[in-house]
Amino acid sequence: MTKRPKTYTEKQVTKLVEKGKRGRYYVSQNLYLLVKDKGIASWFLRRQFKNKRIEKKIGNYASNNIYFLDYVDAIELATKHQRTFDLGLNPFEQQHALVNTLDELVSCYLNSQSGRYIKEQEIYAREIQPLLGNKLLTEITRNDLETVLKAMVDADRKSIALRAMYFFRTLFNYASTHKLVIENVSAHLKPHLHAANDGELRDVVLSESEIEKVFNIFQQFPEQAPLRNQIAIALYLMFGCRKSELLKAK
Question: What is the pTM of this model?
């Protein structure tokens, strides 16, 4: 008989992800967690189906995040998929059939990517979801997207509008590629027209007290801001050079 792999509990999984201990960890029947780095992990389901071995990512790991899957959510989703397999159907071939609203598109897209899109999630939850989250993809128009972006621009949040615009384009490109929409309603969006971004450089001057405050915070969080990063930032401030120029300097 094949020896069953060690099963990892929720607490053990949390510690593995926090430490970034790379590896593949068995959680429940046919369900594995692949840890790539600190705080970065993905859920995978393995299954034999019609004499073929299927291995598919079912989501990214995170706790307290409505778009990603925690330990309990992953087990529940894996169980649903396995019931579908038992009925003689492949749930991964039907996955996109369940995407109807913008909320569902965002969730599906984020769980299909390796990137975390933390800032985009914040912007979506605060600026976009209350207006368009529950709206059917088939009912979302170009004007809907323009209205959301214009509200940000009018509130003098142009950088947020620009990021939201690019996120719209990413989402609807994905939806168009997977045939979830008939028309890509974001294809016409342009930075200078819809996010008031004219490409001009901003005139921002940091005071000495602001710089001192930033470096004090860096020193309080050495894991997030290691010494080499602090040195690099200090060099940027002294020489006023670009990142690429500093990296190429002898």
Answer: 0.58
Asked if residue 4 is part of any domain, the answer here is no
Strand partners, 44: 32, 57
Query: 168-216, pLDDT tens digit by residue?
Result: 999 999 999 888 888 899 999 999 888 887 655 455 677 888 888 889 8
Asked if 91 and 81 count as a contact pair (C-beta separation under 8 A), the reply is: yes
Residue at which a domain ends, from 153, 168, 194 = 194
Beta bridge mates, 101: 136
Q: Is residue 203 part of a domain?
A: no
Is 21 a domain residue?
A: yes
* Residues in Cβ contact with 37 at an 8 Å cutoff, skipping those fewer than 6 apart: 20, 22
Cα 58 to Cα 39: distance, rounded to the nearest angstrom? 17
Residue 202 belongs to some domain of the structure: no
CATH code at position 147: 1.10.150.130
Greatest mean pLDDT range, 73-87, 115-129, 141-155: 141-155
Which whole-number Å values give the CA distances from 135 to 9, 29, 140, 170, in the listed order? Answer: 38, 36, 7, 18
* Res 202: pLDDT: 53
Whose tokens are 């990137």? That residue is 115
Using CA atoms, how far residue 73 sits from 10, 78, 135, 174, in Å, is 11, 9, 24, 24
Domain carrying residue 57: 10-98
Q: How many domains does the chain have?
A: 3
How does pLDDT run across 82-132, given as a tens digit for each residue? 888 888 888 887 667 678 899 989 988 888 877 778 889 999 999 999 999
